[in-house]
Design brief:
The protein has 138 residues and is α/β, with parallel strands linked by helices. The protein has one domain (2-137): Nucleotidyltransferase, domain 5 (2-Layer Sandwich). The protein is built from four helices and five strands. The chain has helices spanning 38-51, 71-87, 99-109, 114-137, and strands spanning 2-8, 12-18, 25-32, 54-61, 91-95. Strands 3-2-1-4-5 form a five-stranded mixed sheet, sandwiched between helices. The two termini are 15 Å apart.
Length: 138
């Protein structure tokens, strides 16, 4: 069973998937969406769920640095509830504090240009979210 990882933002959703053993996360794509248009997001996400035979979802939960849930966190929890109803798969909310910064650092270290970083940052954040979850299951 593969696991899909999502970094849900206001305009984009970064998507990563695990290998069949649940050891490594690979970035797949970035889905553009208008926040709240769940049907459109799920239509695009459906193909990856089927293609990769996904059995579980890990969705990044952006918490404030003090551990509280803010507006973005609530929006991600709402997305997770809609996804759970749509896919009927187990969903894990994963603390994603600083993942976008970590993704930015990885891309900077790899000398990726600013325009290319902007295109892949959400996908890279999804990889970091999913890999963090996979590592915790070790």
């Amino acid at each position: 069973m593969k696991i899909i990882g999502l970094d849900v933002g206001e305009k984009t959703i970064g998507v990563a998937v695990s290998d069949a053993f649940g050891w490594t996360a690979q970035g797949i794509t970035t889905i553009k969406w208008a926040e709240g248009d769940y049907d459109a997001a799920f239509r695009e996400l459906d193909q990856y769920m089927i293609e990769h035979e996904v059995g579980k979802m890990v969705i990044g939960l952006p918490k404030n640095m003090n551990g509280t849930i803010g507006e973005r966190g609530e929006a991600c929890q709402h997305f997770a509830a809609k996804a759970e109803a749509h896919y009927q798969k187990p969903i894990v909310m994963w603390d994603e504090r600083l993942t976008t910064m970590a993704a930015e650092r990885v891309l900077l270290d790899a000398d990726v240009s600013r325009s290319k970083r902007k295109k892949v940052i959400d996908k890279m954040a999804a990889v970091i979210i999913l890999q963090g979850y996979l590592d915790s299951q070790g």
